[in-house]
Amino acid sequence: MKGKVIVRLKSEVSDPQGMTIQQTVSKLGFEGVRKVRAGKFFEIELDAADRATAEKTLHGLCDRILANPIIEDYTFEIE
Amino acid sequence: MKGKVIVRLKSEVSDPQGMTIQQTVSKLGFEGVRKVRAGKFFEIELDAADRATAEKTLHGLCDRILANPIIEDYTFEIE
């Protein structure tokens, strides 16, 4: 199975990387780019007996390794 | 409109970050994690007259700023 994980800063957390990108692209002439938020993406190949096991593993990976729960949220899909 | 962009290393490009995560999680006792690939995620708020304009802006941003076309691919969705 394959898990696709997106990790984002919580909406109330400041994102200097995203703000810098937004300012840069505006200076470069891209119009209408109001806001940019930067996050992380992970593609994870899993051997799991069933979907529930895969979900448990992905929650564990996100909670312990891939995301910082104080400042980040995560979502994932399983294919 | 909101664009959700995923930038990934091309499959033939080595991913030391992903490999390190895979090795670390195996040592921590997560079973069945065969492969991890790390990428980037961007959420972009756009003022665009229509979907075609938003797509053009997002392709421009990805081609010029968010992705390195030599080693990375990108996909996006518009909401």
Notes on the protein architecture:
- Two copies of one chain form a homodimer.
- Chain A is an alpha+beta fold and 79 residues long.
- Chain A is built from two helices and three strands, in the order E-H-E-H-E.
- Chain A has a three-stranded antiparallel sheet.
- The termini of chain A are close together.
- Chains A and B meet through strand 1, helix 1, strand 2 and helix 2 of A and strand 1, helix 1, strand 2 and helix 2 of B.
Which consecutive residue ranges of chain A, at least 5 long each, have pLDDT under 50? none
Main sheet record of chain A: 3 strands, antiparallel
H/E element order of chain A: EHEHE
Mean pLDDT of chain A: 96
Number of strands of chain A: 3
What order do the strands of the largest sheet of chain A run in, or round the barrel if closed?
2-1-3
What is the strand and helix layout of this fold?
Two copies of one chain form a homodimer.
Chain A lengths: L1 E8 L6 H12 L5 E14 L4 H16 L5 E7 L1
Antiparallel strand pairs in A: 1-2, 1-3
